[in-house]
Amino acid sequence: MSALIVGLGNPGENYAGTRHNIGQMVADELASRGSASLSVHKKSRTRAATVRLGGEAVVVAVPMSYMNVSGGPVHALANYQSVAPRDVVVVHDELDIPFGEVKIKRGGGSGGHNGLKDITKALGTPDYVRIRVGIGRPPGRMDAATFVLKPFSAAERKELDLLISRAADAAEAVVTDGLEAAQQYFHSPR
Fold first, then answer.
1. CATH topology of domain 3-187
2. Given 20, 75, 92, 113, the catalytic residue
3. Chain centroid to CA 164: how far?
4. Between the CA of residue 22 and those of 51, 131, 181, what are the distances in Å?
5. How far is CA 151 from CA 21, 62, 65, in A?
6. In the prediction, which pLDDT does 1 show?
7. What share of the chain has pLDDT > 90, as a percent?
8. Which of 9, 74, 127, 139 could form a disulfide with 21 if both were Cys (CB 3.0 to 4.6 A apart)?
9. Which residues, at least 6 apart from 96, have a Cβ–Cβ distance to it below 8 Å?
10. Domain boundaries along the sequence of the chain
11. 3-state SS string for 118-154
12. 95 vs 2 pLDDT, higher one
């Protein structure tokens, strides 16, 4: 397998439309593009599917665990599929990027994101690709943990499908065109 793309989020209907689950929404979009649906992979505690993106066979998955303990399922699936940590692509919400923007990077810290912290610990390295989907900062004095677990606002929902599509395009570009080409395209002013 050439890559493993993991969309982060929390399980259950209570979290389905929340900002913290944008990674799962992107994973569902990628599976749909590959005419697949994510099904339970018991050995890794994920829902996963193999899809072709631009001619490349990749595994798209979402952990069935809570966000903060995503590392075990990601590590188990990467091992099962023989995907090296540097070929793991994690799609996640990012408070420090304005809503609607998508940024791509390899490695780095967790930026306070407990899902990334757990994945880094489980993989034994921070050297995996991150598709950082901007959800913006909370308004006023709202706590960040509260903000990420809230549904998108009505105004954000109008742009949500476009954001999910753009993040899916970014993940696909990393796999098909390589990290640098994807960064040049998605980080360029529009």
1. Rossmann fold (3.40.50)
2. 20
3. 10
4. 20, 11, 23
5. 9, 19, 20
6. 60
7. 87
8. 9
9. 111, 137
10. 3-187
11. HHHHHHCCCCCEEEEEECCCCCCCCCHHHHHCCECCH
12. 95
Per-residue tokens: 71: 């590392």
Query: Catalytic annotation on 20?
Result: yes
Q: Is the pTM of this model over 0.85?
A: yes
Dump pLDDT digits (tens) for 114-134: 999 999 999 999 999 999 999
**DSSP classification of residue 37:** -
Task: Place 190 in a pLDDT band, splitting at 50, 70 and 90.
Answer: low
Q: 138 to each of 1, 18, 91, how far by Cα in Å?
A: 38, 13, 20
Residue 23: C-alpha distances to residues 132, 141, 190 (Å): 9, 25, 23
The single-letter code of the amino acid at 112 is G
Count of residues in the chain: 190
